[in-house]
Design a protein that fits this description.
Blueprint: H1 3-10, E1 28-31, E2 34-37, E3 53-54, E4 57-58, H2 60-82, E5 88-99, H3 107-122, E6 129-135, E7 144-152
Parallel strand pairs: 3-4, 5-6
Antiparallel strand pairs: 1-2, 2-7, 5-7
Helix pairs in contact: 2-3
Length: 153
């Protein structure tokens, strides 16, 4: 077992299977020493745990958990591209999208779910630059979507 997988187990988590793309793209692309993931939804066993807008039908705290699940799915995509998450030397950037009710302004708190997972998993190497963006709608009416840029050796 790898060090990252051991840490995931300590956190009560495991890498899921890589989600099948919902369009004409691949889950992750490697260029140089960076892996870029496509946006990942919070699928659990191939099913979205919720749909709709955060702030209107989806609670912000639930969406925070969905952001963590999306990040875990993005890590699975990255692992499939580079072979092992033990190769990750730095989380460079997180981009998080939150399907938001027009009055909802807590996008940073929602995407903290992804950021906190990455910090818990990789320590200081998991601290990253980030964007947290409110949008009108996401694919399949998902409440959140997360993409990652990771450096690896």
């Amino acid at each position: 077992m790898s060090a990252v997988n051991d840490r995931l187990a300590e956190l009560g988590l495991a890498l899921p299977a890589v989600a099948a793309p919902a369009g004409s793209y691949v889950p992750a692309v490697v260029t140089g020493n960076l892996v870029y993931t496509s946006g990942q939804l919070p699928f659990v066993d191939g099913v979205l745990p919720a749909t709709g807008k955060v702030g209107a039908g989806v609670a912000a705290e639930d969406a925070r958990g969905y952001a963590a699940t999306s990040a875990l799915n993005a890590l699975a995509a990255a692992a499939s591209a580079i072979g092992s998450l033990d190769r990750v030397t730095r989380v460079v950037k997180v981009v998080g999208f939150v399907a938001s009710d027009p009055s909802f302004t807590g996008q940073p708190g929602v995407i903290n779910g992804a950021s906190d997972l990455l910090k818990d998993l990789f320590g200081d190497a998991g601290v990253h630059a980030r964007s947290a963006v409110g949008v009108a709608v996401l694919p399949l009416d998902s409440p959140v979507e997360v993409e990652l840029v990771l450096e690896f050796a």
